[in-house]
Write a structure and sequence with these properties.
Distance between the termini: 63 Å
Radius of gyration: 19 Å
Order of helices and strands: HEHEHE
Strand content: 5-15%
Structural class: alpha/beta
Largest sheet: 3 strands, parallel
Shape: globular
Helix content: 25-40%
Number of helices: 3
Strand order of the largest sheet: 1-2-3
């Protein structure tokens, strides 16, 4: 019986380590990124079991990196930022970049 339990534990650990990470957009919880809003959004995302939060960076000057980093560390989740661009804000032809970040020809 111990062998089957140990096998089950190993399977579970492998599954947990290999699962796809899931995230949620901050607008599910809040409609801004003030210290109070970021705190609530990050904590609610972590409490709901998400691995990361997608935060809006519509106004990058409103984001305090030090506070955001501290909140994320305390909650144990990661972050991705989105710009929320519309179709008029983006070139019709996607940019192609090389590994060093320089534009590719053509």
């Amino acid at each position: 019986m111990m062998a089957s339990i140990a096998g089950h534990i190993r399977f579970h650990q492998t599954f947990v380590r290999s699962r796809t990470k899931g995230g949620v957009h901050a607008f599910v919880w809040e409609h801004g990124w003030s210290k109070e809003q970021a705190t609530r959004a990050i904590n609610r995302s972590a409490e709901a079991g998400f691995d990361f939060i997608e935060a809006p960076s519509l106004d990058p000057s409103s984001i305090n990196p030090a506070i955001t980093t501290k909140l994320l560390g305390a909650a144990g989740i990661g972050i991705a930022f989105s710009m929320g661009l519309d179709f008029e804000s983006v070139d019709a032809k996607p940019a192609r970049l090389s590994a060093d970040g320089s534009p590719c020809p053509g």
